[in-house]
Amino acid sequence: MKYVYNFGNGKADGSAADKNLLGGKGANLAEMTNLNIPVPPGFTITTEVCTYYMEHAAYPSELSDQINQSLELLEKIMSQGFGKPSNPLLVSVRSGARTSMPGMMETVLNVGLTSETIPGMIAMTGNERFVYDAYRRLITMYSDVVMEKSAGIEPAEGKGIREQLDHIMDKMKEENGYASDTDLSASDLKTLSELFKEKIIKVLGNPFPDDAMEQLLGGITAVFGSWNGKRAISYRRIESIPDHWGTAVNVQTMVFGNMGDDSATGVAFTRNPATGEKEFYGEWLANAQGEDVVAGIRTPNPLNSSTKTDDSFVQVGLDEYMPENYQLLHDIQQRLENHYSDMQDIEFTIQKGKLWMLQTRVGKRTGNAAIRMAVEMVAEGMIDEKTAVLRVKPEQLDEVMHPMVDFKAEKIAKVLAKGLPAGPGGGVGQIVFSADDAESWYKQGKKVILVRNETSPEDVHGMHVAEAILTAKGGMTSHAALVARGWGKCCIVGCSALNISASEKKMTIDGVVLKEGDWLTMNGTSGKVYEGKLPLIKPDLEANTEFTALLKMADKFKSLKIRTNADSPEDASLARVFGAEGIGLCRTEHMFFEPDRIISMRKMILSNTLQERRAAVMKLLPFQREDFYGILKAMSPHAVTIRLLDPPLHEFLPQTEEQIEELAGELDVSPENIKKRIGYLHELNPMLGHRGCRLGVAYPEITEMQARAIFEATIQLIDEGVNPMPEVMVPLVGTVTELISQKKLIIATADAVMEEHGIRFDYLVGTMIELPRACITADEIALEAEFFSFGTNDLTQTTYGFSRDDIGNFLPKYLEDKILTHDPFQSIDQKGVGELVKMAVQKGRSQKQDLKIGICGEHGGDPKSIEFFNSAGLDYVSCSPFRVPIARLAAAHATLNS
Amino acid sequence: MKYVYNFGNGKADGSAADKNLLGGKGANLAEMTNLNIPVPPGFTITTEVCTYYMEHAAYPSELSDQINQSLELLEKIMSQGFGKPSNPLLVSVRSGARTSMPGMMETVLNVGLTSETIPGMIAMTGNERFVYDAYRRLITMYSDVVMEKSAGIEPAEGKGIREQLDHIMDKMKEENGYASDTDLSASDLKTLSELFKEKIIKVLGNPFPDDAMEQLLGGITAVFGSWNGKRAISYRRIESIPDHWGTAVNVQTMVFGNMGDDSATGVAFTRNPATGEKEFYGEWLANAQGEDVVAGIRTPNPLNSSTKTDDSFVQVGLDEYMPENYQLLHDIQQRLENHYSDMQDIEFTIQKGKLWMLQTRVGKRTGNAAIRMAVEMVAEGMIDEKTAVLRVKPEQLDEVMHPMVDFKAEKIAKVLAKGLPAGPGGGVGQIVFSADDAESWYKQGKKVILVRNETSPEDVHGMHVAEAILTAKGGMTSHAALVARGWGKCCIVGCSALNISASEKKMTIDGVVLKEGDWLTMNGTSGKVYEGKLPLIKPDLEANTEFTALLKMADKFKSLKIRTNADSPEDASLARVFGAEGIGLCRTEHMFFEPDRIISMRKMILSNTLQERRAAVMKLLPFQREDFYGILKAMSPHAVTIRLLDPPLHEFLPQTEEQIEELAGELDVSPENIKKRIGYLHELNPMLGHRGCRLGVAYPEITEMQARAIFEATIQLIDEGVNPMPEVMVPLVGTVTELISQKKLIIATADAVMEEHGIRFDYLVGTMIELPRACITADEIALEAEFFSFGTNDLTQTTYGFSRDDIGNFLPKYLEDKILTHDPFQSIDQKGVGELVKMAVQKGRSQKQDLKIGICGEHGGDPKSIEFFNSAGLDYVSCSPFRVPIARLAAAHATLNS
User: Fold this and answer.
1) A819:B698 CB<8 A
2) What value does the CA radius of gyration of chain A take, rounded to a whole number of Å?
């Protein structure tokens, strides 16, 4: 079994294809070596050793020999000796997993420095200070990483060995009045090494090893061990990286960028990772180690003149400082980008005038950059359209579409609280605590953030005018979250640190008191809340030609159609701009909340006779007709799926004493009467109560009125030469008889309207599949339905028995304990809810082969869910307007990945 | 195609086997004819004609000829002529469906009387008055049934033709000063006929037909038409009789029991239908028509001396009045019972000294009678045990087990209101409006009925002492219903006519005001509520040897085991008496409501730290241990399935301002603090909230405490030489990871307890399957579960998306509109919920072939559901103690019918 792979001198055992075995770093080092790019030689110990080590707590027996052989080869290539007094070889020991896990695992540098090799090193470099500086770095790192961490010692905070050694150095600097580390002389550093070693024995009970081989093996074990370190494990959880992958270990000849003014080090990107612009972009430092660039102790220089900014124009570029090496580096980066056909993130070191490449990997990039690069690389002929489409993650489009908090400002701001990121983008505004206040402040030209414990449909007017919404309660699919996401509005929910006193118009967060009018900044993409005003960066999508181009490419590959959830002509138009091919869910309930309508609605609910009720309902007809007219027109000739009234009637009734009094006055009934009715309509579990088609069964006049409004609007549009396509959707069907009862009313109404106007029109009658029973009996239901549309929010609620409004109390614990891998309201639960979806598709199509099937729940905008829906054979997904581009791209990914 | 079947003169075309074709009445008339029992000859027009007529609104073309042929045959047998002047033949036209639908369809008697046949009839009978009396009866019946009803005329109430004709007769009686109909002379009746016929032309526009054949065909059509009459349709809905069965029509020679003192008529049972005693039992009247016995205008005589009561001992028995005919009748009834091997309900008429049998059918009987007959008939060798077991309907056992309102008293009492029959039996008591009042009145030795809008766990103490419970809200599985049924207590829920003002301690029902202390009587089996006190009849089951014998027979045939749902040693013992083979569901939540426990529970909920919480929980340990000790002991060596805490924590918190103040004092915290916590725990949909195993995940210390209590009780019992068998059940599992998390805690606790005591014991850890997701992923869950127990209440709630507490608002409408055929909380929905059950059984056993599977939802006591669970392959059903006998019998039926 081969456990160790060599690279160096233009020849490597592995290649970029061996990522799983050698890790990303090791595979790319091998690949660069094969490409004849100057890489410090070394060898990679495979991930299999890591797996073996985790299982057996010991190494494979062959490993030791293979390491020795590789060391010998390395010594031969370098003409140096590891642990030898003359021409000593120093190596670095670094982790390298399949995917980059930046900073999550350990590294040990300068391995091989011992009392025996130090003199040889000084002779070789002619720089005693440099050698002792390297030595004290080795001691610090090794004692921390190998002797303390990998031994499982957990010192109190701030009492680790590293801190104790730092403290010794700080003391020395203080005593000598040194301002910076560079003031330390060779002899200072030598003294320091001795002090360090004494301290280590005292604190850890063991001496710092003075044997090169012992250092090397200790380093290797520490790196493997760090795979199971706390940080690494929790990072893997978040990124869904399997534990069994393991890490490889790279042992590589040390090269030094801090050997004098002819040395340097830097990191660079083959294109600008923030903007995507095709320019060689990076940072470097003369006479420095790689860590110095990253750590931010010294401000690095811009790599070249062309990327200097207003702030950095006085600094020297590498192109100016070392033109030849810059040219060499420039050629290499171009070769690497061409070779990998993707933007590379590289690290390099120049040691005494000689350029070495330490790493290349695919570079991380912002959403904007990803889009631009993908589109430009197609234009350059570097990649094909399929690759370009797959290069951009659907979620990255989100960044591009919403105003974002300036990440530079955010980096240095203090997080006040954190909640669930329910609506994307950034929001800045003044705090208000009620929807009415939001509206009146908005009318005064102010930007407001509406802060509530939770929101209800009565708050919608205030939510609409708010820059952002912040709630103390609720989950990712609470009312606030749903509404905000529908509008693409910044929203954070379930921010339990808020302690709101709406009556006093103030709130307390972790001791900080914020009053009405105070400024707040919210990052709805991360869930973070900041005090005060941070700058926002706004997108200009129409000017973003790459955005449009990428989505056009995506459309070529996707097979799912993308519809939108929209309740107004404005939303419908917006969604069309984003590429929506119809409305998959037009909710009608909010239409009843407007002040001139709610009174009729309430009258209806409080009616005692069918006649009264019918009269009240019919007052709503002109409003509804107008609503549907606008929406059908905006979406024509695409289909508009209109869901009949869904929420329980008590949601429309007033809640406060005051509102009840007011209503009583308006309706000329006693407040007691209204309260009695409210009591009667009160439900213990409204989610499972008298709602959905159950309303239409009990109050057929509501269905009739809504159907009439839809069909009269249809006729009106046909008269005007528009081509409307209404699809009437019956919600919450659990048994086919419910659908039959409602369908009968709808068809009768359609027939009547056609008769009255002498015009025929097309329409469909279908149903939402949002209850387990609907899935189980989908074959029966399909016989009566012209389309299915999955309501996966409610289906998830009923399949799991989770109230989405109430899971806030236990979901965090469930995720923490890994009882759930993710929030099933965000991404569909394929094993449970997904099985029901598949069952319904199969049963439905078994009766009606070409049954149109879509999904209009929140999952319609979630890329992972879209992939599932694609594989389940759905015809379309429907999502909020701002998710439409994301869904288009995700749908393309789904086809390409299937 | 043969549409008409003859019978008469000892020879019939059909037999008892032809029930579907000839209806029950027709088939039995044929059968009796074949047995050479004297039956007035006639013929039966088949149910197929009815079906044909309903489909085509016309008769098959062959029908007319076949009727004519049968009439000819009849004339020949009787030597009479239909519509002929001399020796005229009169016939009756009666309905007869597969199952008896008493009084739901029409009948026309005396058909064939016309101006032409009347003189011949007078000549034949020598009794003019009799003939004109028969004539006016024919005219009344015919004008009502044929001319008005079957013509679809719907007169205003009280304005029907029958009422108008009755009015004419009343007027004549008044003018002549007659007290009774019998005072009308022949000439009076003749005049009356003429007046009737004039009125008919005036009101209905058509003359009464004076043609025998026209009368006959009109009658036949009217009877067929009455199959689709309002009354018949709604009866079929209730009794689940399919519309397509149709009715047959029996045309039969008229015989008259009112032809003088040598004539008589009566109805009788071959055994006493109320008690089951083997005695010929019935009623008769001399010189009367059959209707007179039923109608109650004259008080009928007891059939024989042996069945005379204290009230009837002065009346004459038929055995005394007509000894020979009585002996004949007695022989016939014995032959019939032997022939049919079941108790018969017979009708007879004696015309001028000649006995005719008009009907025989299986007699309806009370639950008590059904049991006694079944057991005695086995002893007599008349039927085998299998037949005996199938003879008693499981529901009939209910009657036997509970005190019932005396049916004689109930018959004449006025129904005050009607609700859902949630708990069986009768209850009489004084009204109280709060649980506390119930308790204090009970302590004063009073019998109370607790009346509430709805009940909550805090009311349990009051419910326990109440004779019966009445609620205005809630469905068949509301809190009140569940608790009451568990105790076998009379309960009516969802009685929406109640208008309760608990603060004023009064309620209004339909204008009647009832105050605290007023008496009320409830029939929990029918859902009827009566004002005042009606007498109750109490059962004595231990003395009921037939009851015990029948259940022993049933046990021989059943394959399902029957467990009980019991939360206390008392209930467990009671259930054992009823034959329970273990506890399938021991709920633990009510155990926390007792005053000395609730405080610790509340302390736990209000704790801020894990430590405080653990301390509070552990205070409950001794109580719980005592609970489990008692229950495990009472059921030993049978298994006891204990469900871990299930309801959301907010159910344990106080609700009123006053209770909050009190608790604040007890816990030494501020009321605001408690209110805040209550607000935090408030859930919009508690059914889908933080409950079930979600509690155990969030608060593992609850699981640990409960597991410890169970296992310490187990050890204690083993020490005492008892053989306990605990099964720990984790509720509301939706994903296997939840079960794993709880199982780990339970096993660790068991191990710890075993270790501490040095004793090993057996126990199982399993889960409730009560969410769709659990059914879908049952294969995964089975790997971790040692048993499954279906919680079909919650499974029905989530599968349908129905909150059982809230369906009261729309369920009645759903049943009325036939959207649901039945309440799915009463009898399992086989198509939806049942499919999930089957899926879970199949998936579960696919991983664990011998997985023990039961059901502990309310459906466990429903016979239809039990049949389903038997076929689904379950091992046991569990139900409340009072349902155990019913379940035993139903389980036997399930096997025998499968």
Assistant:
1) no
2) 33
